[in-house]
Automatic annotation (TrEMBL):
PANTHER family: BLR2883 PROTEIN, THERMOSPERMINE SYNTHASE ACAULIS5. Pfam families: Spermine_synth (PF01564). One of its GO terms (biological process) is polyamine biosynthetic process. This is Spermidine synthase.
Amino acid sequence: MTDVLDKVAGKSGELVLRKAGDDFEVIANGVFLMDTRNGESERLLVSVAADLVPGKARMLIGGLGVGYSLRAALDHPGVGEVVVVEREPAVIGWNREGPLKDVHDDALSDERVTVVEADLVKWLRRTEERFDALCLDIDNGPEWTVTDGNAKLYSDAGLDLLTARLRPGGVLAVWSAESVPSFAKRLRARFGEVRELKIPVPQGEPDVLWFARV
């Protein structure tokens, strides 16, 4: 049985928080976006990125989701500070005061965390901040974006924008629900070191993670 816990008009359309059994689901414009059933690949996105960066990393996480990536970042000994950019206030609220708070053990209250309510593309264009690791999980993949505006992040110009926010030796990590050979090719043409991981999931094609070092 699925229960609707909240339904709001978000910045990118209707957002719905549902509970199905013991798990929570987030639906955007009628399309499944994320849930709390597994989260292995979301955790690996940040933990592998942190492994690739020496010292205490300053990390940017694009997309709060259900908080799995943030929790993994805070639990990693190599992460010192985390900035989370999330454009949907409802998602922040569900994680900060709502039912998702217990999913990640109230990670948003950690003093190492700064939450920025903003569209990631616009924020990247105006900020001068730089990071050791930039973990991108705002879409279902480079060719399966939540909004049309996000697609530019995965273009050559978008990769230039992301790279400009990385410190020397920094790592760009990107999550996808599917393999995208054209994007992998674009990464390899742009970065000197690119690693691709495929994470099996209970149903369907494996999730894919890319890690690119400047």
